[in-house]
Every structure is written in structure tokens, then in C-alpha cells.
Amino acid sequence: MSRVPVRPAALGATALAAALVLAGCSAGGGSSNSSSGGPTKTLVVDNTFDLKTSDPARAFELTGSIVDKAIYETALTFQGDDTTKPLPQLATFKESSDNKVLTLTLNGKHAFSSGNPVTIDDIVWSYKRVQAIAGNPSFLLTDQSTGKNLDIAKTSSTTMTITDTNPNPALPFILPNPSLGVLDSKVLTKHGGTTTKSDGAEQYLNGHSAGSGPYALTSYSATTKVVFGPNPHYVGSKPTYGRVVLQNVTGPSQKIDVQGNQAQIATGLNAQQVQGIGSSLKVLKSTSPDVGYLWLNQNPTYGKGVTNNAAFVTAVRKGLNYQDILAVAGTGSSQPGGMVPSQFLGSIKPDATNTYDASAAKAALTKAGYKGQTVTLSYPTDATLSGVEFSTLAQKVQSQLEAVGVKVKLAGTPISTLLDAYRAGKLQAGIMYWGPDFPDPSDYTTFSPGEALGLRAGWAASMSPEVTKAKQAAEASTGTGRAAAYEAWQRAANQNGPFVPLLQPARYFVTASSVTDVKPNAVWTVDLAAIK
Amino acid sequence: MTVAVAPPRRRMRLPAAWRRPLAIVGAAVIVIWVLIALLAPVLPLQDPLHQSSAVLASPSAGHLLGTDELGRDVLSRTLWGSQVSLPLAVVLVLASLVIGSVLGAVAGYIGGIVDEVIMRIADLVFAFPTIILAMVVAAALGPSLTNAVIALTFVNWPNYARVMRALVLGARGQEYVIAGRLLGSGPFTSLRRDVLPNVASPMLVLATLDFGNQILLLSGLSFLGLGAVPPTAEWGSMVGDGVQQFSSWWLATFPGLAIFSVVVGFNFLGDALRDALDPRTAGAVQGTTV
User: Fold this and answer.
1) pTM of the model as a whole
2) In a domain, A8, yes or no
3) What is the mean pLDDT of residues B262-278?
4) What pairing do the DSSP bridges indicate for beta strands A42-47 and A265-269?
């Protein structure tokens, strides 16, 4: 028998090949140890981080909301998963009859982790800081149509007002956002905090707590984990867990973690991943408020005479098999009728404009004079819609549109690259998602002609006057008439608009059987302090 | 009077090398994959892009290797994947071989400043980890298989250039080369007629051994989302998609095995070819019986 010559390079290549084979059979990452007994109960929560900062005035990411909800209290709040009714937290509220002035009155005694009492000055200071920094959440305290800052003023030692130049019935639904968490102004001013653009307190806030929430920061890393300990001065009910570890783990590894009790809650599993998760674990299913949508650029320069053709838009709407898309997204996902998610005021059911009809789609293509031009469909490669890969959705849409005769070329890019081009309105078509900034339909009128999201799809102000008119009517509506007004706006947008709402995915939380009271919330995902 | 100086001839020992089992296995694996790639359109396979309602179905009689997250047949996609990986590996290796050989031969034969410039550029490429540099280039060019091939060619040509330069440096001092020059051959004629034919065998062996590496790197880039674009059935991207569906083990396993088999096949084949064409190694092998 001959000696077999062995080359190190060949061996290395073979080992690498074997590693690639095994890639599907193993997942990287891990989790820290956890325990459920002893004097301090520890809760380990797996989350796929999009964390940038824990400074409320700058944070506007999903993970940031979880972190800030645990550390900071807000003037108003929501109870559990119900986002339809704002409730007092640091303050009670009263709206003026014209919905232009909201008066906040300090609600009992609250204390920051430093021991300082929460005052009306702290709330005013925190809100003005949000406005001054002009970060991602600053728009929450601006007029939705003009973009001008709301007027924030202290009116007595226990009261303040927030005044808008236009009726703003959404304001009570905006104030519970963790980005409007109230900070300890006395502590912050000593660490660079100001109510001007030059605020320099972010670094301090990424290592220390300055809130009155149930938890205080023990350690903070935007890429690995955030650890919380109790806030000794918190005036509410003491949280069940004395220590909470929120750690950055990808979806597949979250499954292993929670199955191996390395984590007690997994927040990032999709429908396929929760299958066969094991009977010893609990699967909580809810509908995500995130809306996945398709857009078709109406600007002739980028629509290239194809996507900016109204009949072509109709063909796409009719050519999509929405139920088939939901099947890919998994059990529990649903089709929104318009851009407003199903759980919010003003949402609508799918109608004839959003129903699969292949023959109608083909007829519309003929009417559009479509001659087989290739449409480039962009999508983010490094983001998911509650665990559903955009690549999967894009391939499904491509397959369906090609079945009715539309040629589609997929163009996946990292989301940061995609957003630059999308925000500039330079992409012909694509798939994207929109998560709620606050649980009110007024957050969605940006999907209108001439508005920020509308312009991303080349939908100029002059293009669909009937949609603009319906949007203005919705924004001006108050009281019980709001729901009908927002429904009318969405129906008009479905008739004439470039946005095609595709799905709201299911959201799954997998928890250990011992864990209870995990309530998915549309604004802050999950309240760590409420978990028992 | 014209004096013909014939270059030394080398005896082909291929038949001896083929007698070894691993060489036969390697060749068989490659032949099978090449046949699959050629015959995929006529094989009784489902359309690799057809999306059925059987999403993430485990292996069964209907779908021998199961289905993926869009209900596509994994067997079909794995076999059709050979139509992507194998030709691209050939293009990649040929491009690297041609570019690297030309530059290496020029550097070795001409020497001086030309040699310095070419080899310092090669050193610059060598200074970075291969896959990292390929990722950077591929990311800069944008995800596509063409760009992945360009990126890998960019990081791979110096391997060939370095070997070719060393071979040419050794050959250019040989008597038959000097004699050719004395008889009036210009430098490029001498390089083409006297030098290159005598250094071709080691380069061929290097290229054969490189096939496996390049398929692996190409799959690696696709795994990272920098190569194949959906819905192309490509092994690396299939493994990448499979990792996202951890509980559906069949998604990553079978395309992973395809990569594994091709890489191993080319490595066995390359070893056999080297033993057949490289006199020193071949002699050592021939004289050793275990």
C-alpha cells in the first residue's frame, strides 16, 4: 500500500469544509449562567441587540426601549400589553378641549436612584433635553405636521403644560415612550447634561442610572449584555427578580439557551424556530405591530416608467398572494389592510385592493403596457421582521410576481446601505418594515404624498390629492371620529398609493415554565420589571 | 550550423498515481459532480426555484432531502448548485493561474525593478488574511457571484505568481535556456518556448489543489451573503440560510456535504496529480510501501 502524502493545506481545507458542514448543526454564542433560587433571583433574557445607547434622549431602538423602560419612568404609561389607554405614572394628565394643550400634574412621590425626588422640573428638563439634542426620538415632542418643537413649560411646582399649535390628540399615547423617560436633572447637570445641543451626558448614562424606574444599571455593553440591579429608591412594587441580564444572542442560539435554561426568556425566535421547542417551555404568541410593506417608486426617474405606472401598481397589488406570504412568515402572522397595524385605532381589514387575483393582475399589466422590463426589488440582508428574513420575503414576492409576468431582480444590501438610498428616494422598489413610534394612527400618516416616507417612494405632494385630503381630515379629527377618518385615509392610499402592506409577523416569546407575566408591548417590547 | 538543444523530457507517471485508492475516489467524486452539473437539466429533479406549500418539510419520499423555508426541494437545489460552484471555481482558478503565471514569469525572467514591483504587490496581498481581504473586496464591489470571483481572484493570483517566479528563476539559468538565448531567441520567445513548458507541470498541480480551496472560499463568501444572490441555488448561501433555521438540520447539512465532497475530491485528485507530475514526490511515493 502506498503512503498517502498529506499536505497541511489540504488538511486545512478539508477541516474548513467539515466546519462548513457542521455550521448547520451547531450555533455559536452562549449565555451566562443563571439561577432561579437563592436570595437574589436572576432572570436571563435573550435578545438580538440593536442597541446604540441607553441615553433615552438618543435611544430609539427596540433593545434601547427595553433597557430604558427598566431604568426610567415616564410621565404616562401603558398597562401590560394594552396600548389603547394611557395611564398616569409620574404624572396625571388632562387635555384641553381643542387637543392643543396637555397639562401634566405630578402624581405622588417618586425618587431617582440617587435618592433625589422626582420634580416637575426634572420632567420639563428631560423633555427639553430630548428636543435640544435633536436625536432620533426628538420628533416625539414636535408638531407632526410642521416639525416645530412643542412648547414645554412649568406652570407651578407640581404642574406643567405641553402645547402644540395644532390639535395633537396623540400626545398622551406618545408620552409613555421610554425615550421620554424622566432623568435626574441634578445628577445629569454634574455630568455634562444640558438642555442644549451641546449635551454631553450620553457617556455617563451608558454606565450609570439616572432614573426612577424599578432597576438601575449594573453593567452596560451595547454589544454583549446589559445587567440590571434593583433601584433602592423605587417607590413602586419591588420587581420579582433582583438581577436581570439582557444579553445579545442571535435567534438560533436563543433557542439553545432557553432549552438549556441558560436563559429564561427568548425574545427573538421566529415561527419555525419555536416549532418543537419542548413541552417544558412556554410559547407566548402575539401579533407584532411591525408592518412589512412593499413600495414602488412613483418618481419617473427611479420608477423608470414601470413602477410609477398606476396600472402596474395595481398589478402588483393583485399579483401578490398574501396568504402565501403569511404561510412563509409562520403561524400567527396576519395581513394588515393598511399601514396602521391591526391592534391600533383606525386599522382596517384587507379589501379588494389587497386581495390576490392573478387574472386581474395580468389584465392590469396589459393595461399598464408592461413590456417585460426588469424591476429591481431591494431589501435588507441583515435585518429581520420579528425573525422573518427579508430575503425569504423578497424571494416569495419575486416568485409570485414572476408568476403573473413581472420580471423581478432581487437586490439585497445591508440595511445601513439600503436606508441611505431609500431615504434619498432612489430605489425603484423594495421591501421594508415600519415599527410604531407610538401606538396611534397619526404615526402612520408619514406614508402619504409629500411626507417623509411618501417621498422615499417618490410620492410627491401633488401626486394624489385625494389621499392628501383624506390624510388632512384624519389629522384634524378628534374624539370618536378619529378611527373612521384614519380608515378613510388608508382606503384612499390603497386605491392610489405606492405602499402595499404585506404582513404583520407573529411575535414569539419563549419562556421557562416558571416565568409568568411576560406581556409583549408594542412600544417597549417587554417590561422586565413586570415579569414574575 | 544550427545546434538543437532539446529540453529534458519528463515521464508521465499518471497511471501509477491513479492506482492509489484515494486518487480514484477523488477522481470519481469529481467526475460524478461534473456529470451532475452537466446533466442537471435532464435529471428527474424538481425545479430548484419552484416554491411549494411544503415549507421546511423534513426528508421524505416526496422530497428526499426535505424542503427549505420557501418549500423548495433541497435535493434539487443541492444538485443544481453544482452548476454554479464548479464552473465558477474553474473560472476563478484559471483567472488566478493566468494572471499569477504571467506576472510571476515576467518577474522571474526579467528581474530587477519589475520583479521588485510585482512581488511587493504580491506581498501586500499576502499581508492580509485571505478570507478577510476577499470579504472586503467583495463587500466593496457588492454582493454577486461575479464580484465574489473577482474578489477571490484578487487575493489568489499572488500564490501562482510566487510559485511561477521561483520556477522561472530556477529554469532561466538552465543550459537549454541559455543556449536558446545564444541562438537568438528574444526574452519572450525564450520564456514561451523554453521556460514555460518546463514549469507547467507544477503550476498544473497547484491549480488542481487550489480548486478545493477556491470552492470553499466561494461558498464562504456566499455563506456570508457576499456571493450568490437569492434565489440562486448555491451551496454556501444554502448553508447560510440553513443556519437561520437551526431545527431544520437538512437545510445546511446536504449542501455542506456537497462542499465537503468536492473539496476532498479535488484535494485527493491534486495529490495524485502532483505525485504523477512532480518527479521528487513521485519517486518518494513509488519507493515507499507501507
Assistant:
1) 0.78
2) no
3) 86
4) parallel
Domain carrying residue A222: 29-48+214-288+506-532
User: Which residues in chain B are contacts of A276 at CB distance < 8 A?
Assistant: 247
Q: Chain centroid to CA A473: how far? A: 26
Q: Which CATH number characterizes residue B263's domain?
A: 1.10.3720.10
In chain A, the number of structural domains is 3
Cα–Cα distance, A161 to B271 (Å, whole number): 81
Q: Are residues A438 and A318 in the same domain?
A: yes
A232 and A187 in a common domain: no
Which set of grid coordinates corresponds to residue B114? 519589475
Residues, chain A: 532
Q: A4 in a domain, yes or no?
A: no
DSSP A479: G
State the CATH number of the domain containing residue A181.
3.90.76.10
ipTM rounded to 2 decimals: 0.77
User: What are the C-alpha distances in Å from B100 to residues A158, A162, B131, B156?
Assistant: 78, 70, 18, 8
State the SS3 of A271-332. Answer: HHHHCCCCCCEEEEEEECCCEEEEEECCCHHHHCCCCCCHHHHHHHHHHCCHHHHHHHHCCC
**Quick one: A320 and A251 in the same domain?**
no
Q: Is residue B155 part of a domain?
A: yes
Check CB contact of B260 with chain A, cutoff 8 Å: yes
CB contact, 8 Å: B146 with chain A?
A: no
What is the reported pLDDT for B280?
59
User: Which residues are paired to A152 by β-bridges?
Assistant: A162
Give the count of Cβ contacts less than 8 A between chain A and B: 141
Confidence of residue B221 (pLDDT cuts 50, 70, 90): very high
Question: Quick check: B267 and A5 CB within 8 A?
Answer: no
Percent of chain A residues past pLDDT 70, beyond the cut: 93
DSSP, residue by residue, B72-98? -BHHHHHHHHHHHHHHHHHHHHHHHHH
Q: Is the dihedral of CA A129, A133, A137, A139 positive or negative?
A: positive
CA distance A410 to chain B (A): 7
Q: Are residues A236 and A337 in the same domain?
A: no
Instruction: Note whether residue A12 is domain-resident.
Output: no
Q: Report CB contact under 8 Å: B223, A20.
A: yes
Rounded-to-10 torsion of CA A306, A308, A314, A317: 90
Q: Is A27 on the interface with B (CB under 8 A)?
A: yes
